[in-house]
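@channel sequence for tomorrow's demo:
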Amino acid sequence: MPNFRLIRVLLHVFQGVLTCALVFPFSSDARRASLVRAWSTKLLGLCRVEVRFINRSGVESTEHALIVANHVSWMDIFVINSWQACHFVAKSDIRAWPIAGWLSAQAGTIFLARGKQRDVRRIYEGLVHQLRENKRIAFFPEGTTGAQGSLLPFHANLFEAAIEAKVPVLPFALRYVDRQGRLHSAADFIGEMSFAESMRLILKQDHIIAELIQLPQISVVGMHRRELAQAAHAIVAQALGQSEEASISPC
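structure tokens (generated this afternoon):
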């Protein structure tokens, strides 16, 4: 059965490649966003991942904002895209992934090389420009995936883009659970695990629930990027039931 499911996933990926190559060049931004959202939703369905959107923000709709979330798995991007298609900032390693890296690039992912301050500055300037153009930008301030049950420190650098663009920060908490509400270990994508290993493990599961929890947005008025990162970390940690120790990365 997992092999049959893998074939269906591969066929869906192939369809995505064709869409990016033949449809995207002639599509409006709104049409692209609709296609990305639909493709992401179907991919998760083929992996038997059910997305549950939980709104704890106190409002039904939000104004334009910089979106941040904790990072658990490669599935996070598709879970968020199934809600609203976003342009993600992701580590440059993903660009080298076969097919998935190319698809991510076509969907508007912005790749950031670790430890390269010049690259950070270039990406930062691009983010400010796109936020001012009302594009939906999202990133994972932990900088890497972490095991569920823990929350890594947040890197503060890219929060500066929200301050300069004068848009609020909209935090989300992500968890993957089973039908009993317990954290689902199959979703963890950490250590030396490869993308293929993670995919095989997920396809063996009968059902995974991805909880996408929208939290109250954070105003950037009068805030420093480190304060923003700390505030975002605190609200995500609270939603995940985690402690607030070491909330900001020294980098």
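heads up for whoever presents: The chain has one domain: 2-240.
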